[in-house]
Structures are given as C-alpha cells and as structure tokens.
Amino acid sequence: MWKRTKIRSILLVCGLMSMTACATQPVSGNPGGRMIQDGQAFTMHAGERVTFADSSALRYVHVVNDSRCPPGVQCVWAGDAEVAFEWTSGSGAATTFSLHTGKDPRQQALGERSLTLTSLARGEAPDAELRIDRNP
Hints:
Helices cover 16% and strands 41% of the residues. It contains 1 helix and 9 strands, in the order H-E-E-E-E-E-E-E-E-E. The chain has one helix at 2-23, and strands at 34-36, 40-44, 49-52, 57-66, 81-88, 94-100, 107-110, 113-120, 128-134. The protein is elongated. Residues 11-30 have low confidence and may be disordered.
C-alpha cells in the first residue's frame, strides 16, 4: 500500500512539473516576448521583455525611485518616478537607460525608433505605459 501511494505521489509531481514547463515556454517561439509594432502604445510589467519590428528587445528592469505625490494628498510638487530599462539592439548590444514621469528624459532613442514613457501605475512593481514610434 505504501509503495502505491509513493508511486502516485511521484507521478503527480512529474505531471505537475511537465505542465509547469509547458506554461513557461515563449509564445510563438519568440524568446524576446510579445511583438510590439511601430506606432503602438503598450503596457509592460516589471521584468517583462518585448520585441520590436527590427528584432531589438526591451526589458522593463524595475522602478529606481518613486517620489510621486500619493493619491489623495495635496503636494507642492507632483514628484517623479524613474524607471530603468534595458534595450538590446538587433546586433545584440545591450544599453541600459532610465525614463522619468515628472522630469526629463521621458523619451529615449532606440536605433531608428523612439520610446516614450506615457504613464506609470502605482504600487511596488507598477505597470509602465509606453509608446514606440519610428523616427521620421
């Protein structure tokens, strides 16, 4: 009886592990994350990676600093949040940079494109609203 229970437990664990492995595979074989088209506004979660039309990739690293005025509080200055990103060009060269919500820079050139931080949610790991545009 003990052997049967142990075998069932092992099979259950193996089955759960195989399901977890499948769930973490990249969608459509895209290791850079979801594809973002030029002229598109999009949301990123902390740690997420997306790919652009030129095969470059952007990763939202983390919020470096957030001194924004809390909701429901009257402040003299609205404050600023700084968000760190890592961009990897199509050739594989990586560049780190930060964008801000309340001061410059709010925009960063990424090869032939420009990335703009349009807003940042509240919280410990807030979602970033961004826009990618092809430079004229």
